[in-house]
Design goal:
- The complex is a heterotrimer.
- Chain A is mainly alpha-helical.
- Chain B is built from 3 helices and no strands.
- Chain B is mainly α.
- The chains are: A mainly alpha, B mainly alpha, C mainly alpha.
- Chains A and B meet through helix 1, helix 2 and helix 3 of A and helix 1, helix 2 and helix 3 of B.
Amino acid sequence: MNDLIGQVLLSVGLCFTFLGCVGLVRMPDVYCRLQAATKCVTLGTGSILLAAIVMTGVSGTGVKAAVCMVFLFLNSPTAAHALARAARSSGIKVWQKQDGAKKDI
Amino acid sequence: MIKVFFFLAICVALCVYRIFRGPRAADRMVGIDILGIIVLIFCVLLALHTGFEYYMNIAIAWSILGFVSTITLAKFLEGRNLDE
Amino acid sequence: MKYTIVFIVIYLIWIMLTWNMEPANFFTGAVVSLIITALFGREFPYHPEHTFQPGRYFAFARFLGVFVVQMAKANFIMAYRIISPGLPINPGIVVIPLRLKSPLGRIILANSITLAPGTFTMDITEDTLVIHWIYVETLDPAKAEECICGRLQSILKEVFE
């Protein structure tokens, strides 16, 4: 039973990670790329770590996966925030849909 | 399990495409950040597949080191106006 | 008091990181935690008396529930935006007011906004948050705050202040 739940969580996590990478290629500007990639890849990795916890239970692998999950959910948005701030202060404009006009921040 | 690794290889290929293609430095950095998280997923899957516990230690250390490297690159980019 | 809390937290993290049931490991962990506590214990908990108020833990559990639901919703919306061929996005930047004062609360609010549907924290100033919104619905700060934060900010105010 635990094995089955683990396999399902693993598949969901891999699908979201793949979608995040597709978003990294498809989105038009750096902020949208950052947004798509950060959200989808963070939830995908969290789901895979949850699968590791469910499949191995209270053992070395499971407890370390829990610690890794806490680190990931604190680190990943912070790194994305630092990148967005760097991109903004280095002067990258926000992409607009209407006839490709650029808008000042 | 080999199919899962093939699936992740496609993700790595998409990230590498963005790293090579990205018009500015910030786009490349986004690609590098995501590539680091995919390496973490590889470590977790190896720990599950082979049953060796120490791959999880590598995953934890890798997540912290990837965070520090991304912060450093972001600070570098913030300091000066790097075009490309 | 302050030092005891820091020591217990660091020792728990050590035990979870090295999941190893030998007496030597516990002893090494105690020594390392003591050294780290002596070096950095002066600064870490800003309000040590908050540790023993159970209401704050219940409020934090409620925050975690709201946050997990929002994160799952965010991922399905983002997956739809990525897959659909016309790219239904309309990005823009809005500025919303920030009323939290505690540093840890501000960090957690910014991180949870990054993982919430369609929004992304770009910058924090003294009393505002600069947010990149992938599908802008309104530019009015009060309405935007209602759309983006919802209840998160009030729950976090309950937890950390």
